From TrEMBL:
Residues 47-63 have a biased composition (Polar residues). Residues 43-63 are annotated as: Disordered. This is WG repeat-containing protein. Coiled coil: none annotated. Keywords: Signal. Residues 1-25 form the signal peptide. It comes from Phocaeicola plebeius. InterPro entries: WG_beta_rep. The keyword Metal-binding does not apply. PANTHER family: DUF3298 DOMAIN-CONTAINING PROTEIN, GLR2918 PROTEIN.
């Protein structure tokens, strides 16, 4: 929109009733000529320049522009049209005998395939939507769905005593001596084994690689009680490790050597050189990679991870603030906040302004504001990152918060170039399937007609 169009529309509200009709026509003709000259002086299209108009609480949302130096993001607000994934002529259809939006559950891709559960039927599909393997094995209790890693996946057939490793054809590659085991993480899985001890049997935890070979023999220990925990990933060279005998967490390296002895009730992964840990007192603090407590355990609520020099912590009154690596408050008075990523962080400002959701930079200055506040969802749950992808609530956004692609339900970040989503249509109907980054549904699940 050119400057003359913007200003003439504004002038019309002020002078329409004050100028007689013939004079009004002459007046606007002069104004139009004057603003034509202004447009040319500014290079033609003034919409390419930052707008510096004042906004009020009653203004209609203006998106895709800059107001007073702050970007107005096009995050979905229930009124703005969301760019949703669409069916194309190349979309593959997978027929199912149930309502997909209710009964289809799908995990993220790993090793080129993803686990799908349709009511009581389970199978793996590739990135084209071709069924690779019917999964006729038991599902783990209270753990993530089975996942392939380097061509193998742990599985247990019916009433079989022990677990096996299967390949993508369903062939048993190797029998395992464990009666329960996790998925592989960084090439290592954990399992429970039953061994004879005197006149009775005890449970021990063991670790093995994708060839079924034992690893981390120094971490084998007797299990007092508790569920099997999936190994934590290596983060900055260390992985959180749970000791079943001590029922405490420590940290190990990639070889399984304990670098930080199990001493904490709960721990987060290392990030930005520090890890949040919960001590026996129930309070949280931060340790470095030597195990030294560098920020004292004084936080009653679990804090956020450090990222780009700052972490989000909660005060006793429920407000949030950013602290630096010395434990000093760097920015205070927030209703909610997310961790920094590529120099920016999503926050909810602690005021009654309409634009309560904003994006700030490392100087804690607002650089973008949003016409929605997602009040029902904490930012730690609403905002997540994966590489350069930013997912906020149900929508992928740019680094300034503008919508790229969204759906009523998004499964997760892209893996192998796809993510599962549910798109609602008019009349209460829905489309469920996997979309690529272009917003093209590669394949969908559709209830069979008969």
């Amino acid at each position: 929109m050119k400057i003359r169009n913007l200003l003439v529309s504004g002038f019309s509200l002020c002078v329409l009733g004050a100028i007689p009709q013939p004079a009004e026509a002459q007046f606007f003709k002069k104004i139009s000529n004057m603003l034509e000259t202004v447009d040319k002086a500014l290079g033609g299209d003034a919409s390419k320049s930052n707008t510096n108009t004042e906004k009020t609480a009653n203004d209609a949302p203006q998106t895709g522009i800059t107001v007073n130096g702050i970007h107005q993001a096009t995050l979905y607000d229930g009124k703005t049209t969301m760019k949703c994934p669409v069916v194309t002529s190349n979309t593959k259809v997978i027929s199912v005998d149930v309502s997909p939006s209710i009964y289809v559950n799908m995990a993220s891709y790993s090793d080129g395939v993803a686990f799908v559960k349709v009511d009581k039927k389970c199978f793996f599909v590739d990135t084209l939507g071709n069924k690779v393997l019917d999964y006729n094995y038991g599902l783990p209790f209270m753990r993530e769905y089975p996942r392939f890693y380097q061509g193998v996946c742990p599985a247990k057939k019916g009433m079989a005593r022990n677990m096996s490793l299967i390949d993508k054809t369903g062939k048993v590659v190797m029998e395992l001596p464990v009666y329960d085991c996790t998925n592989f993480v960084d090439g290592v899985a954990a399992g429970f084994i039953s061994v004879q001890k005197g006149y009775s049997k005890v449970t021990k935890v063991v670790y093995f690689n994708t060839k079924g070979e034992p690893v981390y023999n120094n971490l084998i220990e007797e299990v007092k009680f508790g569920n099997l925990e999936t190994p934590r990933p290596l983060c900055e060279g260390l992985a959180a490790h749970y000791s079943y005998s001590k029922q405490l967490y420590g940290f190990r390296d990639e070889n399984g050597s304990l670098v930080i002895a199990p001493s904490y009730s709960k721990v987060q992964n290392f990030n930005d050189g520090l890890a949040a840990v919960q001590t026996a007192s129930g309070k949280w603090g931060y340790i470095d990679k030597t195990g030294k407590m560098v920020i004292e355990a004084k936080f009653s609520s679990e804090p956020g991870p450090f990222s780009e020099g700052y972490a989000v912590v909660e005060k006793r009154d429920g407000s949030k603030c950013y602290i630096d690596k010395q434990g000093n408050i760097a920015f205070d008075g927030l209703r909610d906040a997310s961790y920094f990523h590529n120099g920016k962080a999503f926050v909810r400002l602690n005021n009654s302004a309409r634009y309560s959701l904003a994006l700030i930079d490392k100087n804690f200055k607002v650089v973008s504001e949003f016409h929605t506040n997602l009040n029902s969802l904490p930012l730690e749950d609403a905002v997540s990152y994966s590489g350069d992808d930013i997912l906020i609530s149900n929508c992928f956004v740019t680094d300034m918060g503008d919508m790229i692609l969204g759906a009523e339900r998004l499964q997760s970040h892209f893996s192998d170039g796809l993510t599962y989503c549910v798109v609602w249509q008019e009349g209460g109907k829905s489309i469920c399937g996997c979309t690529n980054r272009k917003g093209e549904l590669v394949f969908i699940f559709k209830e069979s007609e008969f």
